[in-house]
Amino acid sequence: MPEKIVLAYSGGLDTSIIIPWLKENYAYDVIAMVGDVGQGDDLEAVVNKAYATGASKVVIEDLREEFLTGYVFPALKAGAVYEHKYLLGTSLARPVIAKHQVEVALQEGATAVAHGCTGKGNDQVRFELAYQALAPELKVIAPWREWDLKSREDCLDYAEKHGIQVTASREKIHSRDRNLWHVSHEGGELEDAAQAPFPGTWQLTRSPQEAPDREEQVEIAFEKGIPVAVNGMKLDPVSLVELLNDIGARNAIGRVDLVENRFVGIKSRGCYETPGGTLLIAAQCELEALCLDRDLMHFKQHIALKYAELVYFGLWFTPLRDALDAFVETTQQNVTGTATLSLYKGNVSVVSRHSEHSLYRTDLAAFTMGENYDQKDAAGFIRILGLPSRSRARARMEVAR
């Protein structure tokens, strides 16, 4: 009996040719695991294609809700944004896919797992660090680090030689990753950092020129940092994100063009569309501004940077990420309320924010003098805070004499 291997399978160019390659080079019994994180594929067609290219079994895992509640929403609560722009759509999807791939491998008695990530990218790290954390006994096969194919054109040649139908072409050469949180685009004209994305590169969002000539307002409600309703409608996580994606996309929200620093040390250029995520990040930040103590909010900004880096670097299944989640969870206990945003041709502005846990007090913030703040008190703490500065100034004066 041949050994079994479980491949993280999408039906795209890379994984389509990996099934026959594994059978030719390793004689494995290949099980294709399809993780549905909301990529919008015709799953029946993906399954048929996997069998047609040599898979002995196909397992479909519906990971959409787990992806949001177990990975995306924790990152949202943390405020995790990589290098000021990237909302980590691909980075957050890889650990949940890898987790279920490992579970399928153990259930099926497989001895190995495989992925279609290149040896120059981040995803190989994300998949394989997850494998090592969850099932280090499994052998890992990474075809891109072994075969003699050097480019997507080579992959297309291999597919044609083996009679494999793929959607990529020599004219349409972008590499894309889509899930409920975003769509990413790499390759093609984007490899030139000086070249603007072609209009046809974008897949999900309208351009500002195509967006409506009127603003649209959207109210997002949160409970303890978790989004629960849009415009007064309580929604399950998947429906909520899908609705916000539609609202944001038609208003040209969420496009990002980023030159980023990959984990492996290479600078790469990618374009991302995250319409719903952009709205959620904006709304959640507004509620935190109302509800978090100053020192806590400022310290949490440091945590957000580290959290984003951990996610991007593939370090999801680590004690540090668990510990950061515990900290973030305590910060979100009072982040309950609503934020209303105005959307207009790619711009997001705040209309209002409200929370019963708000620390904002009009009697303190208003210019009108009230009984709760004696302005004379300010003189004392300014004198105390300024003591080191006065001491340094006097020392310089004495030296100058």
Overall CATH architecture of the largest domain: Alpha-Beta Complex
CATH-defined topology of the largest domain: Argininosuccinate synthetase, chain A, domain 2
Task: Tell me the Rg in angstroms.
Answer: 25 Å
Class by helix and strand content? alpha/beta
Contiguous helical run count: 13
Distance between the termini: 92 Å
Low-confidence stretches: none
Give an account of the 3D structure.
The mean pLDDT is 93. The protein has helices at residues 13-26, 43-52, 64-78, 89-108, 123-134, 152-161, 237-250, 275-291, 294-312, 319-331, 362-365, 377-385, 387-400; strands at 4-8, 29-36, 57-62, 112-114, 139-141, 175-178, 183-186, 216-223, 226-230, 233-234, 255-261, 267-273, 337-344, 347-354. The chain folds into two domains: 4-64 and 92-170, Rossmann fold (3-Layer(aba) Sandwich), CATH 3.40.50; 178-354, Argininosuccinate synthetase, chain A, domain 2 (Alpha-Beta Complex), CATH 3.90.1260.10. The chain is built from 13 helices and 14 strands. Helix 1 (13-26) packs across helix 6 (152-161), helix 4 (89-108) packs across helix 5 (123-134) and helix 9 packs antiparallel against helix 10. It has a five-stranded parallel β-sheet with strand order 3-2-1-4-5, sandwiched between helices.
